[in-house]
User: Fold this.
Amino acid sequence: MYTSLVLVGILMASGLMGAQLTTPSAAPIRKEEKPAVPARIRVGCSPQSVGYNGPAALWRNAGPDSLSDEQIASLEAALVRDAEDVCARGYLIAHGQSYVPRRLQHVLWMIEHHPEWKGFLHNRAQPEGALGEIEGRDRIRAAWLKHVAADGQSGAVLHHAAVFFEWSDPLLAEELLERAIRVEPREPLHVERLGALYGRWSLGVGVVDSWFPGHARAKLLSSRETLVVVSALHVISPNPKAGRGGEWGDQLRSRLRQLAGDQVIELPSQSDRYRNPECTLLPLLRRCVDR
Assistant:
């Protein structure tokens, strides 16, 4: 019996020692899985703010800013209810871009019924997208020519037509702006646009076999209208303190000093007079881009 008790004691002692020496196994460490990097990353998609603050800022579109598909559908539905909803049609023209299948039809309707629409100040009549672009431009050209051939047009309509023809037919654009000035001599935007027309063409960038750059320079150097020269200089060198424009810019600055001395001439388009939005602002979407 003594032997049995000894054996029990030894076994109990061994079990106690084993329990002290054995530690509980640690829980397995889970590695945090990193999300897979997509082959293409989608950028953009957030509403954008418009930095431009000149005339008809509501209708100016620098490129990627667009309406969402839902907004486009809603605006198209609004036109079904009321074809005269100029705001809805204006948004589809200016900000729908190639996402609006009927954009050309909207442009032609606006030229026919509301050629005074301020979006035409930013050449929103130009067709967008490759499909039907040549046909679309010809139809838009014909629509503007029909307007300007008629008597009694407002200066705004003549001005808007001139914007469309500025690069394709600068001589016609010049004639239309001069008509606009005669019709509305108190509207300085027409004079400013004429100076901008001369300024852009005077640079002769990308122009082949055209006499108009030389004509534009001669007009500017002989002009007695200070605003024409100021506007052309703004096109050539937006920052007047930078003094850009090379030798041609120096000639224009010299002409401006002859006309206005040291007087600072502000562009009418930069005044508060032309900054009142005529329609409710809609948030624009920068369409997602795959990279």
Remarks:
- DSSP finds eleven helices and four strands in the chain.
